[in-house]
Every structure is written in C-alpha cells, then in structure tokens.
C-alpha cells in the first residue's frame, strides 16, 4: 500500500542537500534495498511570476501566459529531493547520474493555475553500469492530469577488477557484443524507462552513440526537413544561473572545485537546462499536446560551444546537441 506524504509548504532543497552530504561521510551507507512505497504530494501550488520570468530568461523561453514544458519539473524537484534524501531511500543522492527524461504535456498549463503535484520512485533495477530507477512526477489541474515527467537516474557501480587472462586454449570464436560498453555499438534504455546527479569522469549516459549508432534525435526514415544547425555559446554562468532558478544546486554545476571532486576540469551544464533550452528553440512549432523524450549523453563542460540541430519528422521533431561529442538527443511525438 502506498504511503502518502502531504506537504503543506515547499520543502526547499537546502536541507535535502545537507542530508545528501551525509552520504560522503566514511562508514555511512544506504540499505541498497527496495524503493520506499511512498508518494510525496503538495496541493494548490501556484507559480511565482517573477521566478517564472527568471526561469524563462535563463532557459531562453518567451514570456507567455502558459508554463514552459520543463517548468513543472522545477516545481516538483523539491518533492523529489525530499523523497531521494529520506533515510529509507536505498541509494545515495550524491553520485547519481541523470541519464534520461521524458515529459508529456497533455494540454497547455496557464501560468496562473494552482497545480496538485505528486512524486514517487519506481522501477528500481539492475543496469550494466550499476543500479537505475525512475522518479515519476505529475501535475494535475482541477483533478485532471495535465503534465507528467519521468526521470531516470543511474547509480554507477564501483569499477570491477579485470579478470585474470584465461590461458586455456579455445578454438571457438566468442560472439560479437553490441552493448553500451562495446566499441561496436550502443545500448539505449527502452523509451518507457529513458531518465540531480553527477556523471563520473567522462561518463556518458547509457545509449551513448557508438560508431554508426542512431539514438533519439537521429534523422530516421521519412524525415521531412533538417536544420543546418545553430551554434550555442554557453557561458560559464549558466550553471549558477540555472541552479538559482531550479533549486538544483549540486556543486558539480556551480563550482570548479565541486566539479574536480567528480573528475571534471570545470563545472558542467545541468541536463535539464540543455533540454529546456532545446525546447525553447522549438517554441511556436510544438502542438498543444506532445511527449518529448531526451537522453543525456556526454556532459557539457562550461563554458562551451555546441551545435544544435533539428529534424522535422512525420511524428514531430528530433533534435540533438553535440560538439566533439554528443551531449543530448531527443524526439518530440504525440502524447503517450
């Protein structure tokens, strides 16, 4: 039976990050067991117009009377943090990798609406690189769901020592592998599971494009038109600016020292900022109802220059952000 936790006010994220820091204390471990069967709710959440305007400026959205598709994710983020830093949550927050995100907009949401938010964790399971789970968030208006977000996170397992070489003669040929760790191909999460966290040194999300691999955002058969690509010049301040409007103050995005602690030479952009900025580039070309799936690949080191491309498809759009490495790929389709 699902236990419901009703919050009367926003929990904030400062205390959640303090609880998350406990995971860095030697000897402090999480259970590693099942996900808590808990749903965190907050009712009648209204939007602060000045905060919305600041979010729009940071992400590149126009100021309108409807919420950007990624904004409910920001509203629900403190609830997700409350859930993921609870004592009974099996995995530590510090070190999680946000590998994919799916958002479904059922209809435009007025910026003056009072939303009922809910968040729960689902689908804990094994992954070739560790353990993964989903955070499911919903927003309802007048009792009807108007928005749904599914974020998939990965907890990387410690590297395993290489096995001793087998000196036994063997004339049988080993089968060719095409998994995500194979140089011959890439392995993506199923789209239904594709989903604040940090990446390890040079880590890409599952499904990082290998030679010849086509992930979400690659032009498929029947593509109608492709853009030549536009250059994004991403300043270093994007990390701190987005942290201020999103509540995701993970130091890997805001501090050179924090980034170095996780193996990066400088801060990296938030994955959800790259998704929001990509959707801002598609404003005016999206229907009232749609689903947008993205996979986060190589982290985008700040400051950065990267190329954003879009492709019109029979079902909607595909898009990608890349420099010398792919950073994000995504598709827009009808609502699912």
Word description of this protein:
The protein has 336 residues and is an alpha+beta fold. It has one domain: Roll (Thiol Ester Dehydrase, Chain A), CATH 3.10.129.10. Helix content is 19%, strand content 30%. It has seven helices and twelve strands. It has helices at residues 14-21, 49-59, 71-84, 238-246, 251-254, 256-261, 271-281; strands at 3-7, 38-45, 96-105, 115-127, 130-141, 144-156, 225-226, 230-234, 290-296, 304-313, 316-322, 326-333. Strands 1, 2, 3, 4, 5, 6, 7, 8, 9, 10, 11 and 12 form a twelve-stranded mixed beta sheet that branches. α2 packs antiparallel against α4. The protein starts with a strand and ends with a strand.
Helix and strand layout, with pairings?
Layout: E1 3-7, H1 14-21, E2 38-45, H2 49-59, H3 71-84, E3 96-105, E4 115-127, E5 130-141, E6 144-156, E7 225-226, E8 230-234, H4 238-246, H5 251-254, H6 256-261, H7 271-281, E9 290-296, E10 304-313, E11 316-322, E12 326-333
Parallel strand pairs: 1-2
Antiparallel strand pairs: 2-4, 3-6, 3-9, 4-5, 5-6, 7-10, 8-10, 9-12, 10-11, 11-12
Helix pairs in contact: 2-4
List the helices and strands in order. EHEHHEEEEEEHHHHEEEE
The helix-and-strand class reads alpha+beta
Question: Termini distance?
Answer: 26 Å
Number of β-strand runs: 12
Largest sheet: 12 strands, mixed
Computed over alpha carbons, the radius of gyration is 20 Å
CATH first level:
Alpha Beta
How much of the polypeptide forms β-strand, as a percent range? 25-35%
Poorly predicted ranges: 24-28, 168-224
Please identify which CATH superfamily we are dealing with.
Answer: Hotdog Thioesterase
Helix content: 10-25%
Mean pLDDT comes to 80
Total helical elements: 7
Estimate nothing, just give the exact number of structural domains: 1
* CATH A-level architecture: Roll
Question: What would the principal axes of the Cα set say about the shape?
Answer: globular
Topology-level CATH name: Thiol Ester Dehydrase, Chain A
Protein name: Acyl dehydratase
Family: Belongs to the enoyl-CoA hydratase/isomerase family.
Biased composition (Gly residues): 197-220
Biased composition (Low complexity): 167-177, 221-230
């Amino acid at each position: 039976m699902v236990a419901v936790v009703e919050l009367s006010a926003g929990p904030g994220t400062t205390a959640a990050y303090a609880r998350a820091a406990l995971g860095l204390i030697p000897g402090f471990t999480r259970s590693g067991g099942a996900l808590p069967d808990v749903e965190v709710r907050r009712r009648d959440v209204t939007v602060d117009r000045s905060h919305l305007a600041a979010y729009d400026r940071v992400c590149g959205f126009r100021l309108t009377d409807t919420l950007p598709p990624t904004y409910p994710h920001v509203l629900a983020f403190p609830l997700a943090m409350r859930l993921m830093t609870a004592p009974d949550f099996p995995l530590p927050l510090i070190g999680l990798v946000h590998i994919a995100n799916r958002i479904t907009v059922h209809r435009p949401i007025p910026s003056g609406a009072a939303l009922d938010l809910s968040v729960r964790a689902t689908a804990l399971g094994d992954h070739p690189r560790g353990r993964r789970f989903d955070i499911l968030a919903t927003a309802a208006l007048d009792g009807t769901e108007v928005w749904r977000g599914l974020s998939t996170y990965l907890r990387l397992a410690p590297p395993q020592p290489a096995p001793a070489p087998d000196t036994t003669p063997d004339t049988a040929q080993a089968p060719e592998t095409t998994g995500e760790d194979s140089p011959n191909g890439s392995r993506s999460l199923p789209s239904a599971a594709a989903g604040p966290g940090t990446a390890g040194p040079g880590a890409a999300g599952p499904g990082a494009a290998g030679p010849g691999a086509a992930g979400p955002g690659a032009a498929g058969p029947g593509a109608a038109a492709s853009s030549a690509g536009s250059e994004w010049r991403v300043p270093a301040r994007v990390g701190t600016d987005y942290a201020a409007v999103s509540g995701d103050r993970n130091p890997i995005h805001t501090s050179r020292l924090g980034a170095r602690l996780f193996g990066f030479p400088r801060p990296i952009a938030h994955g959800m900022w790259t998704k929001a900025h990509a959707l801002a580039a598609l404003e005016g070309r999206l229907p009232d109802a749609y689903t947008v799936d993205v996979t986060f690949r190589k982290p985008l080191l700040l400051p950065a220059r990267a190329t954003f491309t879009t492709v019109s498809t029979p079902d909607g759009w595909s898009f990608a952000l890349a420099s010398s490495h792919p950073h994000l790929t995504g598709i827009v389709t009808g609502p699912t």
